[in-house]
Design a protein that fits this description.
By secondary structure, the protein is mainly beta. About 10% of the residues lie in helices and about 50% in strands. The chain is built from 2 helices and 16 strands. It has helices at about 5-25, 160-170, and strands spanning about 40-50, 55-70, 75-85, 90-105, 110-120, 120-130, 140-145, 150, 155, 175-180, 190-195, 200, 215-225, 235-245, 250-255, 260-270. It has a 16-stranded mixed β-sheet that branches. The longest helix is centred in the N-terminal third of the chain and has 17 residues, at about 5-25. It is globular and about 50 Å long.
């Protein structure tokens, strides 16, 4: 892992993690699961939980909210997160980032609109669409920040399809799952993600609301996110989360090596199914 992350790179890593968190709540019911995954809205709080002496970050405070909905022909996600980083030198940097995405239920088509602000100024906008053809790969077409096409190699997946498979693997009792995922948060293309899944254990989610969505059992899932460079041996960052069988993420820890960020559930609410 990198010992010191510049603000721009740090922003993208946090964004990718939170996008993965949202995707973990947004998928169809996995085969063999005891209960169906439920569309819902949720808010989470973020705070620094641990930092080594060499860490460039002194404090982290923020919130993340999202809504996942069934759009009949696909899944839609609307997400926003606002977080403030305080660095050891005393500098404070605030990030305000939003995602709007749509993914076809067959996992073959994907649209994304990403907007990243730093201290109130637009740092980057990513917009485009992508398609896959079975397991033979596909193409991403970026409309912003510029016209650009990126090839997706065979086996690549979009976030919802990836999480669908991840929960299916967890339900089957398998402890490992590795895949390459494109989520639209970076122009480099798909990112290798490795998962280690432990047996479901007793747990409880904090926050308020959504009693019908809560469960006292969840899977501990550890994810490692690697650079798109195939020569890279170490992950950019790792996360550990508790995921219920219905897809609700109870809590999460983002580990950057020099510091860790806790993500905890504040509020949960179910979303009614549409009339399709």
């Amino acid at each position: 892992m990198q010992s010191i992350l510049p603000p721009a790179r740090l922003t993208s890593l946090v964004l990718a993690t939170l996008f993965g968190l949202t995707a973990a709540t947004a998928c169809a019911p996995p085969a063999g699961a005891e209960s169906e995954v439920a569309p819902h809205t949720a808010t989470y709080s973020m705070k620094l939980s641990n930092a080594r002496a060499r860490s460039p970050v002194a404090d982290v405070q923020g919130r993340m909210s999202f809504a996942w909905k069934d759009a009949c022909d696909g899944w839609t996600i609307e997400q926003r997160f606002e977080v403030r980083f305080t660095y050891q030198e005393g500098e404070e940097v605030s990030f305000d980032n939003s995602y709007v995405t749509w993914e076809a239920k067959d996992g073959e088509s994907y649209r994304f609109n990403v907007r990243k602000l730093v201290n109130g100024q637009v740092e980057e906008e990513l917009r485009g669409e992508a398609s896959l053809s079975g397991g033979s790969g596909g193409t991403v077409t970026f409309n912003r920040p510029e016209q650009k096409e990126v090839e997706l190699r065979p086996g690549a997946m979009f976030p919802t399809a990836h999480t669908l498979r991840l929960l299916e693997v967890a339900a089957s009792g398998e402890p490992f799952f590795a895949a390459t995922v494109f989520d639209g948060s970076e122009q480099e293309g798909a990112t290798p993600v490795s998962a280690v899944i432990a047996n479901a254990r007793k747990s409880s989610a904090g926050g308020k609301g959504g009693d019908e969505l809560r469960s006292d059992e969840a899977w501990p899932v550890h994810l490692a996110f690697f650079p798109s460079d195939p020569q890279a041996a170490l992950p950019d960052y790792e996360t550990s989360m508790l995921v219920q069988r219905n897809g609700v993420v109870q809590s999460m820890v983002i580990d950057y090596g020099d510091f860790q960020v806790d993500v905890t559930l504040d509020e949960l609410q179910s979303v009614p199914a549409p009339r399709c």
